[in-house]
Amino acid sequence: MVHSRTVAELAELLGGWSVGTGPLYRKLADALARLINDGALRAGDRLPAERSLAGALATSRATVVGAYEELRGRKLIERRQGSGTTVAERVATPVGDGRVAGGRATAMFQRLIDGQGPLISLAWAAQGGSAEVAGALDEVLRYDMTQLLADPGYHPRGLPELREAIARYYTELGLPTSADQILVTTGAHQALVVVAEVYLRERARVVVEAPSWPACMDVFRAVKAELVSIGLDDEGIRIPELAATLAEQVPALLYVMPSHHNPTGILMSDARRRRIAELAAKYGVPILEDNAYAGIAHTESELPPPLAAYAPLGVETVTVESLGKAVWGGLRIGWLRGPVEIIERCARRKALADLGSPVIDQALAARLLPQLPDLAAKRAVEQRARLDQLEQLLTERLPAWSWRRPDGGASLWVALPEVHADVFAQLTLRHGVEVIPGSSMDPTGAHDNYVRIPFTHPPEVLTELVQRLGRAWDELCRHGPSESAPLRPII
Asked: pLDDT value at position 98?
């Protein structure tokens, strides 16, 4: 069976194909050959026409023609009258694709596996761990190990001490919580996966913000759910559209990031949280709130309680959070807070996946939880200084770009004037920067001219980053997306 790869799909699979030295046509040929050998492209798959692929990759048609000729010489693809260019039938299909499969987050996950190399990658808004992690680890080794080693070590719901600490954390935020409402997960990503498995079935509808983070949307797509996108204003998800959608479509889940939304950095207002909770109660829609960046604030605005605190009795609200942004992503500790019966269902799926997260990591997290507000505030001060630096650099080097200063979080959501960000992202690769374009975060097309620029890199890297972005922008403005035609290989 012949499968036609769309231009967008193939561009995503190719990822950073243009990085490195050598002619572009050969680098493109090598990247396509890797996809074929890994099984991401299979025997009989139809490849896009040369002109279409050239447009998506911001290169010349001659580059794609040269790459296809190279692959024909290697007997990896073939051209048939009426069938276009396809992967050769003689190519053996591997048992499984060794590369990351999935949706719009595929290239980002593959970058983690491959390593960043010479690129400055903007795929991840994360930085190194807080110094307090070392002190807490020393306390675990000194005072907790005897008790931990006396225990069998299997806690599918989470280490009791950590669950108690998380429950106290929410109670102090104005959301009374007991330990049996908490499930510890291996990072926030696993928490989202578990919730999707509990709530969603094939063709179930999930209301999401537009834009949103592609890895989160891919979690829902993985269970074959359908996404319904609703835009944002300066207070969060737009209420008129949300009300109409809930009334017409009866979604299985409403997914929002109320506290410093990723990628816009918007802090959802107190009034907006209350209105969302009222609508969820009226239409019987469960809420999944993701508070990954909750404590990373860049304004003096007081952080409202979690959205769950506004939910009327009977509204199912599940809160996802982690230590990843405020403390350290390497700790891989996240959690769910929700109704006891929902947490029980999630715990059963968590147990099937891994029987529980590592106990020593959880003991370390239990030591750190009481410090979480202070650690988040400290991280926010560091990132605010980098935000100021990035805004100044962009204003000086790229004055045509525009953005709204984020209320919190770790990135700028930047609009490029009259340019499709997918094309610009291909050019930035050749200048040593991996950019995630807006099309990855909003399937509606409303943010195709946007890019997300994290400011979690060290100051000297931010300076170099803006210089590279500036050179890529100069090339685009002066010469357009195409390169001069390379010499065609003689096979």
From this structure: 46
Residue 274 confidence (pLDDT): 97
Nearest to 315 by CA among 277, 276, 342, 274: 277
Pairing of strands 411-415, 450-454: antiparallel
In angstroms, the Cα distances linking 313 to 251, 256, 266, 310 are: 20, 20, 27, 9
3-state secondary structure the chain: CCCECCHHHHHHHHCCCCCCCCCHHHHHHHHHHHHHHHCCCCCCCECCCHHHHHHHCCCCHHHHHHHHHHHHHCCCEEEECCCEEEECCCCCCCCCCCCCCCCCCHHHHHHHHHCCCCCEECCCCCCCCCCHHHHHHHHHHHHHHHHHHCCCCCCCCCCHHHHHHHHHHHHHCCCCCCHHHEEEECHHHHHHHHHHHHHCCCCCEEEEEECCCHHHHHHHHHCCCEEEEEEEECCEECHHHHHHHHHHHCCCEEEECCECCCCCCCECCHHHHHHHHHHHHHHCCCEEEECCCCCCECCCCCCCCCHHHHCCCCCCEEEEEECCCCCCHHHCCEEEECCHHHHHHHHHHHHHHHCCCCHHHHHHHHHHHHHHHHHHHHHHHHHHHHHHHHHHHHHHHCCCCEECCCCECCEEEEECCCCCHHHHHHHHHHCCEECEEHHHCCCCCCCCCEEEEECCCCHHHHHHHHHHHHHHHHHHHHHCCCCCCCCCCCC
Mean pLDDT by 10 residues, the chain (491 residues): 71 83 90 89 90 88 92 89 82 54 51 63 91 97 97 96 98 97 97 98 97 95 96 98 95 98 97 98 97 94 94 95 96 97 97 96 98 96 97 98 98 96 93 93 96 97 98 90 40 25
* Domains of the chain (ranges, CATH numbers): 7-101 (1.10.10.10), 121-129+374-479 (3.90.1150.10), 132-372 (3.40.640.10)
Lookup result for tokens 């596996």: 113
Specify the pLDDT at position 428. Answer: 95
What is the value of pTM for the model shown? 0.86
